[in-house]
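Forwarding these from the shared drive since the link keeps breaking.
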Amino acid sequence: MTRRDIHLDAMLRHLGAAYYESLHGRALPTDVTRALDQVTDQMGERIGPAADTRPRDSGSQRQLPEHHGRWHSRVRDVMTTSVVTVDRLTSYKEIVGLLSEHQISGLPVLTLGRHVAGVVSEADLLAAHDKLQGSQPGRTGLLHLVAGHGQHLGLTAGDLMTAPAVTIHPDATIAGAARAMNTHRVRRLPVVDPDGKLIGLVSRRDLLTVFLRPDEEIARQISELVTEILPGDPAAIKALVRDGVVTLTGQPSLAGQQDLLPVAVRLAWDIDGVVDVINRISSDSRSG
């Protein structure tokens, strides 16, 4: 390798490490941008993709996410922007009617200015019903249910909601949204702008739309990623994708890239639609 190649290889290692750390919240986007700019200056060309100027489909049919990230979608790509909401004074019965009419399991509770005060869900409604039943010992059957229903009507969204709401930023990654849902055991996240105003809602089902991507598209992005992390012969590493399962085979074409192999494999996991990654890349690089 020439001195220029060695210097470029070192910068690419730094770029890969910065990008990996940013995905897990341990580095800032500016750190990745700075590392990318260094590589760009060395190569004398732009590496980043051109801005996508295509208009977005505003209709209700959304088959696949439109990417705002380099390798993976963001919450804004999959979220629902037409959100059914209530205010604090919305009654129990009205909430039940909205959930049934729109076939949803929960909705945000807003204050003035579209700020999210909390979220009310089917679970909250059922918990309130169960609590009222428990407060009426010895009363069972139809008469009890009728009496309980009357008490339900006195409850409002402000009484029923889970607060404070767990929210997420539109530029958060799909993986980040999934972790937030799993950590807080919720099925949906209100999406808010920097001022805390509601701009959308993302559900578990929305997050799963990334797995509708064709295998060919996933393979293309995997190849692009590996080529940037492991520069050299683009054909040295091959990516076979079947039903979202990625199998990486081949051998690095440049010496000294063994320590970048785990980075490339880990980043492959973060590409939209990847179900599993099988690493069959030889760790013995060729001399050159």
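-- next protein --
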Amino acid sequence: MMLTGLVALLPFVFVVDVPKRLGAAGIGWLLIAGGGNVAGLLLAYSALRIGMVGIVAPILSTEGALAALISLLAGESLGVEPALLLAVIVIGVALAAAAPDRARVSTALRLRPVLLAVCAAAAFGLSLYAAGRQSASLAVPWVLLPARLIGVAAIAVPLLMRGRLQLTRAAAPLVLAGGLCEVLGFGAYALGARHGIATAAVLSSQFGALASVAAFMLFRERLTRVQLCGVVIIVIGVSALSYVRG
């Protein structure tokens, strides 16, 4: 995915102007944005390998709320209503993380994908905030470039050197679509963040609801009533937060 994204992004990097005054702080924020994105993807895919999409995706969708919280701690005005909605979203995450079948699923197997998803959401939230800070002063391709470079250097190159960088014919279109959509989605967020990091972050986290619906339709995943309630709370909480911040 990072290779695909890098190939798609490089032509735009060469078209836009090179940043003239970036500074150590700016480079640091770009590294946080890129590193957080890559770490979040690794954690998210690890969670999806062993957990249900309908549970992992809603937890990942809290990345926007986390980015908004970081913005608040950094001095951005949030207000009472958004703060209350963040608390509601946390409750939804706890309910969505409930085990689907306590009789057949061990505690370790229940908790591992949830913990991975929570860590991924934290990494994504930090990445969103860092990218949002830099999006106001840099061209979007330069904001997107660090994650692709870090991903290729830290993941693709080592796999290539060990002869493990392999791609099946069945996975190729999914990898291509994933890499392109990741670049397009993050680029759209970077443009939106120029008008407000918190608002853009929570709006971008709507993917959780879409992923849950897709998991139900494509994979026939079933959720318990408690889990479904948690998913609904997350969706409503993120949507309400988007409305309040809008």
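The CA atoms of residues 216 and 222 lie 7 Å apart. The radius of gyration is 18 Å.

- D.
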